[in-house]
């Protein structure tokens, strides 16, 4: 049910100052605070926000707002302020990310491709070293742990060895890889 303009004017006169003060405290900006309070009253006027008017107040001429209308309006202001702050925060994040994304320090595409190629070659060298220098059991333990992301207990169960053996195989394999690739 839409309420008439006189009732909205009465609500405006009664509650504007408190609504504005709440918005001012939350937003710390005069213009934005006035806008938020205006939006709340515009929503009431357009019927987007329904104020709880009881049957007695509707029957009177002109209808009088209920006692809870002021509290409800304050809650509406608070929600609009929090939504505005949330949108501003998201906008700032996006701006920051876009600024970081378009910074002149970004490497050109060719350099990125070259970096990917170097990483791929390094990865292939590690795999070749693992095949040539590690025992099959150590290779299998490393594969289950780092590629398949299994836990020590799961690896031990699958290979039929103890968890201590899994630990020793991992330690041996990692030590050999570090010696070869991180001297």
Characterise the protein shown here:
- With 183 residues, the chain is mainly α.
- The protein contains eight helices and no strands.
- It has helices at 5-27, 30-46, 55-59, 69-101, 109-133, 136-147, 152-159, 163-181.
- Helix 1 crosses helix 4 (69-101) and helix 7 (152-159) packs across helix 8 (163-181).
- The N and C termini lie far apart (78 Å).
Overview in brief:
This protein is an all-alpha fold and 183 residues long.
Q: What labels would you give this structure?
A:
183 residues; single chain; mainly alpha; 78% helix
State the separation between the terminal residues, measured CA to CA. 78 Å
Mean pLDDT: 82
Q: Indicate the radius of gyration in whole angstroms.
A: 33 Å
Shape: elongated
Number of strands: 0
What topology emerges from the helices and strands here?
Blueprint: H1 5-27, H2 30-46, H3 55-59, H4 69-101, H5 109-133, H6 136-147, H7 152-159, H8 163-181
């Amino acid at each position: 049910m839409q309420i008439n303009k006189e009732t909205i004017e009465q609500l405006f006169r009664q509650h504007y100052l408190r609504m504005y003060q709440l918005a001012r405290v939350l937003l710390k900006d005069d213009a934005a605070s006035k806008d938020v309070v205006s939006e709340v009253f515009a929503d009431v006027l357009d019927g987007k926000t329904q104020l709880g008017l009881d049957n007695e107040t509707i029957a009177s001429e002109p209808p009088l707002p209920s006692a809870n209308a002021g509290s409800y309006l304050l809650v509406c202001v608070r929600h609009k302020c929090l939504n505005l702050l949330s949108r501003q925060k998201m906008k700032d994040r996006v701006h920051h990310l876009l600024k970081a994304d378009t910074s002149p320090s970004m490497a050109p595409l060719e350099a990125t491709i070259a970096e990917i190629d170097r990483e791929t070659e390094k990865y292939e060298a590690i795999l070749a070293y693992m095949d040539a220098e590690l025992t099959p059991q150590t290779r299998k333990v490393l594969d289950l742990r780092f590629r398949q992301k299994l836990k020590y207990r799961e690896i031990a169960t699958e290979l039929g060895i103890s968890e201590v053996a899994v630990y020793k195989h991992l330690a041996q394999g990692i030590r050999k890889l570090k010696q070869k690739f991180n001297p």
